[in-house]
Structure formats: structure tokens, C-alpha cells
Write a structure and sequence with these properties.
The complex is a heterodimer of chains A (279) and B (331). Chain A is 29% helix and 27% strand. Chain A has helices at residues 57-64, 87-90, 109-114, 130-142, 158-171, 188-203, 216-222, 240-243, 246-253, and strands at residues 19-28, 31-41, 46-50, 72-77, 80-81, 94-97, 176-180, 208-212, 225-230, 233-238, 255-261, 268-275. Chain A is globular and about 55 Å long. The two termini of chain B are 32 Å apart. The chains are: A alpha/beta (279), B mainly alpha (331). Chain A binds chain B through residues 28-29, 62, 65-67, 87-92, 94-98, 100-107, 115-116, 118-119, 121, 124-125, 169, 172, 178, and chain B through 85, 141-142, 209-210, 212-213, 216-217, 219-224, 226-231, 273-274, 277.
Chain lengths: 279, 331
């Protein structure tokens, strides 16, 4: 099954099937948050999970990328049950950027990114190869961090730090990238910067992106596929045009809103009006 | 100087420092024994010479014990701080040493004539009990406890285990055997005990070094570590086993010497950064130096009387603990 050879560093990720989720039941400890969920997540696209706080979108993301083991049900990646596959093999297919990664003190950006190569090293004292260095340099370039490579992480701005974490994740050289609220706590310019980077990773390098987003209009603009969740189940899914309706906003978020079309991108966006009620 | 890029050089310097300190330590005691005599006792032992007899039967075993204990407590502390991602974790604060002490007390009561080997196994059992309790507390609800809260929980567990130990000791009247020992005193040690300890120390260190890469990944948080291919259940289990091998065996021979495992990993991280492949060997060397030094102080401050080793390490460790507890983010 394993198509990812040890040295698969090319960016060709063709012939992959979509991620299939069947009968998923998951949550924390004994609390069931999501029950009997069936879902398909398209490969090669940017997918955004949206929904109000506590709807289970983060739980779903963490279960799909194996941080949480489900109570029952299966997540299939290329026909293989993700929760039964070797975690190190998966680390060459899936990279995860959690919501609150901790940065050990004193690490520079380059050192941080180098840890993204961990899944490719077998021994405890395996040295870095030329290929590892090339990919680290590539990750620095894509995230525009070349000039800051030797700066300690704790001396970076919020936006730079988030780019550094993304650089670490892409140094893992995986086809799929999971991002849990990559824009939270960033100001608007840095939010855009991160999302444009995400778009570039998808368009230029063909990566599949699955992310939790809070800002609805950003989801509409940057995602190809939107999954809107409420109370642990998927209420709406599809393209931004199909999902962005007054009905969805009323059901999922309990708000009334005007839906407009962005004159430049031709993508939908919403202007929230009221909580509950009607227009 | 940035030791991060020259861990081998730092390791070599520390090793030289340890050898010098150890050599000096061998000369100090009720009788001053000059270095040439010590050297002769080591390479060409003549038991009829009193000085050489002293070196071989008392001073060398004691030195080797201090080195082994320093390595054991230091490396165990580094592992515990790494897998709990908590700078205040250490064998004494988290109750592992007290657990081992309880195990040993039980062994003395149930099997008073048992060999030291059996006692060590009981100490493993006690250390395992404490480790399981603390790990269960630390991983409860999958949420991370704040460093100070975990330290408090550990101290509470430790106090309970020590109280049970004391009660058992008094009730079954084995107090005399245990009182000096529980203070962390190593004066009565002989070669057979030391030879029993070292294999466990080496096993523990080899396990710790082979886990070091995974432990480093945990410093990015558990979710990141899983994403990078870390096998969390296995890492926690093996690290726990390594900790109880290291602490259980060292406590069984030398008593619960505290704070070595708290202080030395911090010093090592200051010197070589967060990579546990470097932190663990450097911590081992620092632990050995610290305990050989502490033993030297313990023997010479109030000679001919001896201060228990645990008292010396507490003198260094307690202020350091308070400093850590007051740092930003500890609560």
C-alpha cells in the first residue's frame, strides 16, 4: 500500500483518492461529540471546516489526522484505515499544525523547520542529508523566512511565527496538510498572509489542505470546499457558492445575514445582520 | 560559547572535570591518601597496605555509587521533564523516589532476609506505583496540568507514600535499618551493592538515549509530536519504565537523594538546547559531577561526621525549585 518511498521528495501527488470517513463516532474521553458521521474530503483541494464554537469541527479535524482515536468508525486514506496505519508512515503523508503548538525556548527558525524532517530519520543519531537541507531551504523560501532563518522563534511577530510553524509542517513534505485555526490571534494583514500562503501551497505545489477557520468570508474566499457543522454533524457541504446561503447561516450560526458577491473574485461573502430572527 | 554545536567537546570537558573531581575525592577522608597510592591501589592492589585497602573497599565503591546515582537521578529527571513537558518534574518531587522507598520498606518487612536483588525489585515495584499514579494525574482528561499544580500533586503523592513508609517502619520496628538510608546516605556502601546497581543504570541510560529523539518531539506539544510520527503510548510507557529502573535501583542502594533530577536537566538544556539526544548524555555527566561534589562536601564539612547526601542536594535544590515555581508561566 505504501506508495511513499523513503525518498519521495517530488511534488507529484497524482493518483490519490479522496479521504473517506465512514460511521465516525468520536469525542473526548467518554463524551461523544460526533456520532455516525459520513463524509468525503476531496483530495488536491482546500477544504474549510466552519461552524460555531463547540460544534465539533476541531474534534473532527483531530480525529481525521489521528490525534484523536475514534470510538468507532473509520477514516480511509488511499484505502487504508488511518487509525491502524503506522504513525511514522502517515507522518510522510500527513502534516499537522495544531492550534497551540509550543515552541521550546531558544530554537531558531531553521532549527524548528529541521524538526519537520523527523519522520524521514530512522536512527536516533541519523545525520541530516543533502535532501533534508534542500527541503528546509525550500520551506524557508516558500514562507518568505529566508532572511530570518537564524532568528530565535520567541523573537518573532505572531505572523512570522505562524509562517515558521507552517514552514516546519511543509518541510515534512506531505501531500496533505491539516491546519487547526491557522489565523486565530493574528491581525488582519497576517491572517491574509497565512491564507495566501495556504492558497499557494495548494495551487503551486498541489497540496491538499484541510483547515478549521473562524472567519466565514475567508473560508468562502480561500476554500474550494466548505463543510459547515453544527452539534457534531455536517449540515452543509460543497463549493462556497453552494454552501453560502441565508439558510446555512441561519441554521449553523443562528444569524441572519445578507449574502453578496465579491465583485473582484466573484465569490460569495456575507454581511451579518442579527442574531436569530429574520431579515 | 555555543555548546549547542559542540556537544562532544562539552561532554569531553565535563568528563575530564568528573575524573579530576573524582580523583581528588578519593584522596579526601579521615586519612589523606595521596594520588600515587590511589593509583597503585587501582592498578596493582595490595590488600596488606591499609591505605590501598581503604581505597578499594570504601572509597572506590562510594565514588562509583555517587557517579551511578548522579547519572540515574539526572537522566530520570530529564526524561520526566521531557515527557510531561513540565520543567518542575523530577523523581523526588513527583514521588517516584518515595515510591521506591516504600517498596524497599515492604521488602524489609516481608522478606527481612532477602538479598539485595530482591529488595531492588521491590523498589522497582514501589517506583512503578508512584509513576503510574503521577502519570494518571498528569494525563487526566488529556489536558495538561500547570507545572506547579503537577508538582503539588506529586509532592502530595510523595508525602502520602513516605507517611505510609514511616508508619510501616515504626510499626514493624525496622526503623534503624532505614533511618539513615531514607535521608540519602551512602557511607556504608560496599562493592557488591555497587556492582548490582551499575547494570540497571546502564540499561536505563541506553533506553533514555534511544528514546531521546521522540522525547524532543514532545517539547513541541503532544499533537505536534503525533503529527511528526511519534508513537505517544509507546514513548510514555518506555520512558516510564526507564525512569523506574533508574530511580528504583538507585534509591534501593543509596536512598532517595532529591533534587539532582530537578536541577541537572535545566543546566544541560541551558548548555546544549532542547535536543534530548544531547541533553540526556550531558545531564548524566552533570548529575555525576554534582553528586561526587556533594559527597565530597558531605564528608568534609563536619569531619569526622557525615551529613547525609540528600541534605546537601536539598540545599542546592530547594532554592532552585522556588525559583522555577516563581517563574512566569509556571502557574
Amino acid at each position: 500500500m505504501s506508495q511513499s518511498g523513503m525518498n519521495e521528495s517530488s511534488m507529484d501527488y497524482s493518483k490519490k483518492t479522496d479521504i473517506q470517513i465512514e460511521g465516525l463516532r468520536t469525542g473526548y474521553d467518554k463524551t461523544v461529540i460526533i456520532d455516525n458521521l459520513n463524509l468525503t474530503i476531496p483530495r488536491g483541494k482546500v477544504t474549510a471546516l466552519i461552524g460555531s464554537n463547540g460544534c465539533g469541527k476541531s474534534t473532527l479535524l483531530k480525529t481525521i489526522c489521528r490525534i484523536i482515536t475514534p470510538m468507532s468508525g473509520t477514516v480511509y486514506l488511499d484505502g487504508q484505515d488511518i487509525h491502524k496505519e503506522n504513525t511514522k508512515v502517515l507522518a510522510k503523508k500527513i502534516a499537522i499544525l495544531p492550534q497551540h503548538p509550543t515552541a521550546p525556548e531558544g530554537l531558531t527558525i531553521r532549527e524548528l523547520i529541521a524538526y519537520g524532517r523527523a519522520p524521514y530519520k530512522n536512527g536516533v543519531f541519523t545525520r541530516m542529508k543533502r535532501e533534508d537541507r534542500d527541503i528546509i531551504n525550500w520551506a524557508l523560501k516558500v514562507t518568505h523566512l529566508e532572511d530570518l532563518a537564524d532568528r530565535p522563534i520567541h523573537r518573532l511577530s505572531g505572523g512570522q511565527r505562524q509562517r515558521a510553524w507552517i514552514a516546519m509542517a511543509i518541510a515534512q513534505d506531505t501531500e496533505i496538510l491539516f491546519l487547526d485555526e491557522p489565523t486565530s490571534f493574528l491581525d488582519i494583514a497576517h491572517q491574509l498572509e497565512v491564507l495566501q500562503l495556504v492558497a499557494e501551497l495548494n495551487k503551486t505545489y498541489g497540496k491538499t489542505i484541510i483547515m478549521v477557520l473562524h472567519e466565514l468570508n475567508q473560508a468562502a474566499r480561500f476554500a474550494d470546499h466548505i463543510i459547515a457543522m453544527k452539534d457534531g454533524s455536517v449540515r452543509f457541504e460543497g463549493s462556497p457558492e453552494a454552501v453560502f446561503t441565508a439558510e446555512m447561516l441561519a441554521d449553523v450560526f443562528g444569524i441572519t445575514a445578507m449574502i453578496m458577491k465579491d465583485p473582484l473574485t466573484r465569490l460569495p461573502f456575507c454581511i451579518p445582520q442579527n442574531v436569530g430572527g429574520s431579515l | 560559547m555555543n555548546w549547542n554545536r559542540r556537544p562532544w567537546l562539552l561532554g569531553l570537558l565535563l568528563l575530564v572535570g568528573l575524573v579530576l573531581l573524582a580523583s581528588y575525592s578519593l584522596t579526601v577522608g579521615a586519612r589523606h591518601i595521596p594520588l600515587p597510592t590511589i593509583w597503585k591501589a587501582l592498578v596493582n592492589y595490595d590488600p596488606s597496605q591499609v591505605d590501598e585497602l581503604l581505597v578499594q573497599t570504601l572509597r572506590v565503591p562510594r565514588l562509583l555509587l555517587a557517579v551511578a546515582c548522579g547519572i540515574s537521578f539526572g537522566v530520570a529527571g530529564a526524561l520526566m521533564q521531557g515527557i510531561t513537558n513540565n520543567p518542575m518534574a523530577s523523581p523526588s518531587i513527583m514521588g517516584v523516589n518515595s515510591g521506591a522507598a516504600l517498596g524497599l520498606a515492604v521488602a524489609m518487612i516481608l522478606l527481612p532476609d532477602s538479598s539485595l536483588n530482591v529488595a531492588v525489585l521491590f523498589a522497582f515495584g514501589g517506583a512503578a506505583l508512584a509513576t503510574v499514579i503521577i502519570m494518571a494525574l498528569a494525563n487526566r482528561n488529556g489536558s495538561r496540568m500547570s507545572p506547579v499544580f503537577l508538582a503539588l500533586a506529586g509532592t502530595a503523592v510523595s508525602a502520602v507514600l513516605l507517611a505510609i513508609t514511616q508508619a510501616l517502619v515504626v510499626y514493624f520496628d525496622v526503623a534503624q535499618d532505614l533511618s539513615y538510608w531514607t535521608a540519602g546516605g551512602i557511607s556504608g556502601v560496599r562493592m557488591p551493592q555497587v556492582l548490582l546497581l551499575w547494570p540497571w543504570t546502564l540499561i536505563g541510560v541506553v533506553m533514555a538515549v534511544s528514546l531521546s529523539k521522540s522525547v524532543t518531539l514532545l517539547s513541541f506539544g503532544e499533537e505536534m509530536a503525533i503529527g511528526l510520527g511519534g508513537h505517544m503510548g509507546r514513548i510514555r510507557f518506555l520512558a516510564g519504565v526507564a525512569v523506574l529502573i533508574l530511580c528504583g535501583s538507585a534509591v534501593a542502594i543509596a536512598g532517595p537523594i532529591g533534587f539532582v533530577g530537578l536541577v541537572t536537566p535545566h543546566m544541560a538544556r541551558q548548555l546544549v538546547g532542547i535536543d534530548y539526544r544531547k541533553v540526556i548524555p550531558i545531564t548524566a555527566l552533570l548529575g555525576a559531577i554534582l553528586l561526587v561534589g556533594a559527597d565530597l562536601v558531605a564528608r568534609s564539612v563536619a569531619a569526622p561526621f557525615e551529613i547525609p547526601l540528600g541534605a546537601i542536594t536539598a540545599l542546592i535544590g530547594v532554592p532552585f525549585f522556588l525559583y522555577l515555581a516563581n517563574r512566569k508561566g509556571a502557574r
